[in-house]
Amino acid sequence: MVKGRLYGVGLGPGDPELVTVKAARLIGEADVIAYHAARHGRSIARSIALPYMREGQVEELLLYPLTTETTDHPGGYQGALDDFYADCAERLAVHLDAGRTVVVLAEGDPLFYGSYMHMHKRLAHRYDTEVVPGVTSVSAASAVLGRPLVERDEVLTVLPGTLPADVLADRLRGTDSAAVLKLGRTFEKVREALAEAGRLDDAWYVERATMGAERVAPLKDVDADGVPYFSLALLTSPAERTFVPEPQRVPAAGKVAGEVAGEVAGEVAGEVAGNTAGHTAGNTAGNTAGHTAGNTAGEAAGRTAGRGPGKVTGEVTVVGLGPAGRPWLTPEAQEALAAATDLVGYGPYVDRVAPNPRQHRHRTDNRVEAERARHALELARGGARVAVVSSGDPGVFAMASAVMEAAADFPDVPVRIVPGLTAAQAVASRVGAPLGHDYCVVSLSDLLKPWEVVAARLTAAASADMVVAIYNPASRSRTWQLAAARDLLLEHRDAATPVVVGRDVGGEQESVTVTTLGELDPGQVDMRCLLIVGSSTTRVTERGLVYTPRRYP
Predict the structure, then answer these.
(1) How far, in Å, are 214, 469, 495, 539 from residue 444 at the CA level?
(2) How many other C-beta atoms lie within 10 A of the C-beta of residue 499?
(3) pTM for this one?
């Protein structure tokens, strides 16, 4: 099979109109779009490229495992990043080995303090590779200032703000023009270095050049609090400082949808990339050795061969998908799904995860939880990184318990749980705050416990005057339980007690109804519904909102 082609594509400083024609074409043609992000999962690079992306493209979210915090990795901070970059390269290699075109997005220029360079060092010697340059933040800052960087034989020096203060001052003292990048938490040190070098009065501060929240100011006047990573200090051409007027800038409005909200992700992710920019390919040779065999193997045994003899490197992560689509997914869940080699779960839940041909999908019926859990653990024992998916939160009437039960027979396999937004929280949010005081969660399913236990628990909750969130209220084979539950609750609750019926919340067929316990019609409820039965203090406002006061009389 012909191997795919790898592209490192520069996106420029932020304005989508500054993406080159070639970059836009390659983004639209690519089979796979890859991009780095910090742990909350939002990506400036993706937001810039979004106008040029098309439906059906595979997306590879490369989520940093850490940014500036400490780690217990045996290799320390750098060791954790090396392993991360090696793992990302392996994921992209699977696509390239399958003949797919992969575009790795990079803010600015791919080889200018960018994350892409770490993929390039690990993959360019193995695959046909091309780097597409982009407009750098330095050029963008000069442009928004309207001041030349250098002219004739002047010297421009580019410095990272992470350098020691005395080194910064020495470099700034001996150059004509300068750009100091990676301000953020280094801003105060950079300002002191400029002052020590006698250059502070000439320095300009440029924040988020060409983005919606662009800001320009004399650096000496900038408050250090709140300075973002996507800002820089600029000393422009000495020849022009005497007569170029101060810039009169009106910040551009909303060039990228959601840009400001997503910028935090790129700031931190970019900081990690910049801090490790000078790392050499030789440092990671050992990390990447042996991965090729595992990249192309379809089965768990093949993965084990690619990762080294006798070493279990797989794990099982039980992931809560939330009640519906991607907007309900936590960044931690996005990370687990993006890193997985195998997805295991009930068919409709697996289908909610965007297809990725690099991953193996194991769809099963809804009533084989124990078998599904063991299958996931067996895959992980063979070296796979398995994401077991559940709707809502996996620890609430879902797969986390099943996996933990089965894990007793797999003591060598790591298992972790990634929480998700519960159905009860989702339904409650649609009507207000019905869960504002003490509440309990009860499943009406009597498949794994006798009805007598369900009835006793409902009676206890009702007599304690707690709000009750009811899961699994009905199914095709269970048609009488909800009516029985309603009658039990009515023994302790007024018929006017508010009841919220939420169906497919977050989905295409979402419906939410507010009724009363006396008027609740079990015939209108199915397995895709969740009910919230209020307490004696739960109220319905004139606007139809439902809430339970925080104070109890």
Answers:
(1) 54, 10, 20, 25
(2) 24
(3) 0.72
- Both structure tokens of 130: 């091309």
Q: What's the rounded mean pLDDT across residues 507-513?
A: 90
Tokens (6 digits) for 212: 């919606």
User: Lowest-pLDDT range, 66-70, 161-165, 181-185?
Assistant: 66-70
Question: What is the pLDDT, as a whole number, of residue 496?
Answer: 96
How many angstroms separate the CA atoms of 136 and 13, rounded? 6
- Which tokens sit at 380? 């992980």
Q: What is the pLDDT of residues 364-406, one digit of tens each?
A: 887 789 999 999 999 999 999 999 999 999 999 999 999 999 9
Q: How is 287-337 classified by DSSP, letter by letter? A: HHTTHHHHHH--SHHHHHHHH-TT----EEEEEE-BSSSGGG--HHHHHHH
From the list 531, 498, 345, 336, the residue with the least C-alpha distance to 427 is 531
168-173 long-range Cβ contacts below 8 angstroms, 24+ apart: 168/193, 168/197, 169/193, 169/194, 169/196, 169/197, 170/197, 172/197, 172/199, 172/235, 173/197, 173/198, 173/199
The DSSP bridge partners found for residue 388 are 318, 344
DSSP state of 180: E
Tokens standing for residue 8: 């490192």
Residue closest to 442 by CA, chosen among 419, 461, 465, 428:
461
Class of residue 337 by CB neighbours under 10 A (exposed 0-12, middle 13-18, buried 19+): buried
Between CA 331 and CA 4 the distance in angstroms is 29
Q: pLDDT at position 515, please?
A: 96
* Maximum CA extent, the chain: 90
Mean pLDDT of all residues in the chain? 86
Handedness of CA 359, 97, 79, 43 (dihedral sign): negative
Alpha carbon distances (Å) from 97 to 54, 101, 183, 322, 357: 23, 10, 39, 33, 12
**What distance in Å separates the CA atoms of residue 115 and residue 266, rounded to the nearest whole number?**
10
Q: Residue 123 in contact with residue 129, Cβ under 8 Å? A: yes
Is 306 a residue whose pLDDT tops 80? no
Pairing of strands 156-160, 128-132: unpaired
